[in-house]
Design goal:
Layout: H1 2-36, H2 39-69, H3 74-107, H4 118-141, H5 144-168, H6 176-209
């Protein structure tokens, strides 16, 4: 029974790594499509989101089966529940990449991002890719030091989001309301993508240490 339990946990972990790789590719491809008005590339991202969802549903099913059949306790229970939380964050990251792709399709054949903002969007995409890459690595290695770095990466994403909003709200904005709304939404999609990645990293830290990041050290009695 114990060997079966470990095998099921290993498969859950493997699927989470697969999800992390998929959502990283999805956002990278969606950004390329967004900045180049590549409708076919954007549509591939939209279609493949169903595959990410299927992996997540498989993770859910395995977690529920483990809970029902194996009755895990203590650290094993923490591992199972944490896996479900991580899967949820990764699934939402996939949805956000899909939203970016849909923005590209909606404005096709035009490029959805004003030319002067393409550089900032590209920087946000680079941060998103770096964060997603770290999540994949951390899931595979349980490197909590690398997981803790995600907070710093998220700060960079927040700063880029603020810079975009400042340009949208500037009196020199000349692209109209539609472009302003598109840009604000895109900024939000990338920012939320990073937030979910940070959440996944915090869940991994909790899995390894048993402590929520930022929680006080237990006092000696």
């Amino acid at each position: 029974m114990r060997e079966e339990f470990r095998a099921e946990l290993y498969e859950v972990g493997r699927q989470l790594v697969s999800m992390a790789e998929a959502v990283r590719t999805a956002m990278s491809t969606a950004t390329t499509a967004l900045l180049s008005a590549d409708k076919e590339g954007a549509e591939r991202v939209i279609a493949r989101d169903a595959q990410i969802n299927e992996i997540f549903h498989s993770v859910e099913d395995k977690v529920l089966r483990i809970l029902a059949q194996q009755a895990p306790v203590a650290s094993d229970l923490r591992m199972v529940i944490t896996a479900l939380h991580i899967g949820t964050d990764l699934e939402r990251m996939g949805d956000l990449a899909e939203h970016v792709a849909k923005s590209a399709v909606r404005r096709y054949p035009a490029v959805a991002v004003p030319a002067e903002l393409a550089g900032t969007i590209g920087q946000m995409a680079n941060v998103a890719d770096r964060i997603a890459g770290k999540v994949t690595l951390v899931l595979a290695s349980r490197d909590i030091d690398r997981a803790a770095e995600l907070e710093h990466d998220d700060d960079a994403m927040d700063e880029l989001e603020r810079s975009l909003y400042a340009r949208i709200l500037s009196p020199n904005w000349s692209y109209g309301v539609e472009a302003a709304v598109d840009t604000a939404l895109l900024a939000r999609f990338y920012e939320r993508y990073a937030d979910h990645a940070v959440n996944a990293g915090q869940h991994i830290i909790y899995l390894v240490t048993g402590e929520t990041p930022g929680s006080p050290e237990p006092t000696e009695q």
